[in-house]
Amino acid sequence: KLNDEEERQKAAQQSLYQQKHKKFLEQLEALHESQKKQQKKAKEKKRRTDQSNREFVASLKDAVVTIPDEVVDHNLEKAGCDCPDQRVRRLVGIAAKKMLFDVCKSAIAHRQHHIEGLTANKRKQYKNKKQTLELEHCLRALADKGIYLNKPPFYVADPKKK
User: pTM above the 0.70 mark?
Assistant: First the structure.
């Protein structure tokens, strides 16, 4: 009786082991399928990105520029960069334009924040005024971008030179 019972327990354990092993293999197969799907999606995304990048670079030749190519060329040469490819120069111009617009938007936000912090009487002065970018607000906006500038000191004519 003991041997029969031990054999039944062993058979039950083996059956349980086989069931768990089968479930493990199914999960492993599902994991491989999932990994293949993810790799396929990643390849498709990379292909779309590469295609859109190629289209973007091709469109740079015909792009409407805000900052003239001559200005970009001058600043690139001044920085020591010799770039014969017009598309790269246009890309630098577009990046400079974006940076300039971001700084202007941030300066306007700083101006609004400054006006909101004023008393009601002083706020009325700004209400009917045309919006202008002040150096103070531009400096704060540039500092937000990590560019720290100081206002030049006020220079008075040297009395000795008279």
Answer: no
